[in-house]
Amino acid sequence: MNNFEYYNPVHIVFGKGQIAQLSQLIKPGQKIMLAYGGGSIKTNGVYDQVLAALKGYKVIEFSGIEANPQYQTCLKAAKLANDEGVDFILAVGGGSVIDGVKFIAAAARFDGDDPWDILRTSGSTLKEAIPFGTILTLPATGSEMNFNSVISRRETQEKLYFGHRCVYPVFSILDPETTYSLPANQLRNGIVDTFVHVMEQYATHDVNTPLQDRQAEAIIKTLIEQADNIMIKKEDYDSRANFLWCATQALNGLIGLGTVGDWLTHGIGHEMTAFFGLAHAETLAVIMPGVWTHFFQEKKGKLAQLARRTWHATGDIDTQAQAAIDNTVKFFHSISMPTRLSDYNLSQDAIDTIVNRFQERKKQLVAENSRALNQKWLDRYWIYADNYYSNVISAYFDDFFRSS
Ligand code: NZQ
Ligand code: ZN
């Protein structure tokens, strides 16, 4: 097992009716910015519950945070938060609203010249952020219990990550009933995103982490077991509660402790969203089976273990590992998630666009390295770039995408 540190200060408040707890969680007298997306919270009753629970606080609103939150929108919100002297932000929505609020909270307190640097440096130069809490309405990203955020910039077709301890939510309220209004495609997306988060921390090489392996497998098995009820039964509290907790556990840092991660599928997926507009989970379902096939030799031990324990696979290691890939694809199809580029009418041009982006970014990193912008960050990122982005490029030459 590799060395690790674990720190996660997020106060989770889980269950039916818990939005009413807001006044116990936010200090009296604070000025709150209520931030949300395109309006789903107004049609499903969550907005009314929030306003009722915030009676007595000074509240201003910022709405319109997009799916794949946009940089320019978040900058407007950060300016509003400063102009209004906001003490606390409440994010109400899915991963996009929560990620957007993480950036808003950090940008409002950023003392550099260009807030885009927060993303260019993956958050490594941040010092503080406005405190915020969340009410999650879409199980998928784990953003409610981690310090990650992914922000998109339409003008340059970029989608970049940042993370920092100062953007851990102070609390997150997880009420399964808020998910009843989710349409089928968002439920499917949430299941796949959760599945892939687990696997990107699991399907690498074994460093003797049997507890973490079984924690990861428990999430995968629970998702598979609950999927039919999640997808078919509209207001089934128990399956929604189990789904919600699986999604949070998949990316709150716990299952990956001491293991070796491989976020290649997410790395390529973010570029596919930035260029072609596929939903986050849609990209993952196309890419991950290809990544597993391409890196079969390195990943087959863990894939075989998953297949034995989840689908009772038998035969030699190669046969078992192949069973993990086949059963994963079958599971995605069972919840109507496509797994081919051609399902989105994308072909060779799309692949070239993504490969060019990785090549350009690598060149840019070399150039920036010479200016010694932030040596520590660049050294870390450079290792990331070497391990993963160059694999993407070599994978491209080996045709692993072309079968899609
Ligand atoms: O904007 P509103 O009107 O709220 O509608 C949203 C949005 O259109 C709707 N929705 C949310 N809750 C609903 C609902 N509709 C009906 N009933 C409800 N209860 O669903 C749509 C999609 O929402 P979004 O927040 O975009 O989805 P998701 O939670 O999947 O978040 C995706 C974003 O998170 C990033 C992705 O890259 C993407 O930008 N990720 C964040 C991560 C993190 N912070 O750790 C990790 C992930 O790997 C991912 O990269
Ligand atoms: Zn994801």
SSE inventory with pairings:
Layout: E1 11-14, H1 22-25, E2 31-36, H2 40-43, H3 46-53, E3 58-62, H4 71-83, E4 88-93, H5 95-108, H6 116-120, E5 132-136, E6 148-153, E7 158-163, E8 171-174, H7 184-200, H8 210-232, H9 237-250, H10 264-276, H11 280-294, H12 296-311, H13 317-334, H14 348-370, H15 375-397
Parallel strand pairs: 1-8, 2-3, 2-4, 4-5, 5-8
Antiparallel strand pairs: 6-7
Helix pairs in contact: 4-5, 7-8, 7-9, 7-11, 8-9, 10-11, 10-14, 11-12, 11-13, 12-13, 14-15
Short description:
This protein has 404 residues and is an alpha/beta fold. The protein has helices at 22-25, 40-43, 46-53, 71-83, 95-108, 116-120, 184-200, 210-232, 237-250, 264-276, 280-294, 296-311, 317-334, 348-370, 375-397, and strands at 11-14, 31-36, 58-62, 88-93, 132-136, 148-153, 158-163, 171-174. The chain folds into two domains: 11-178, Rossmann fold; 183-262 and 295-339, Dehydroquinate synthase-like - alpha domain (Dehydroquinate synthase-like, alpha domain).
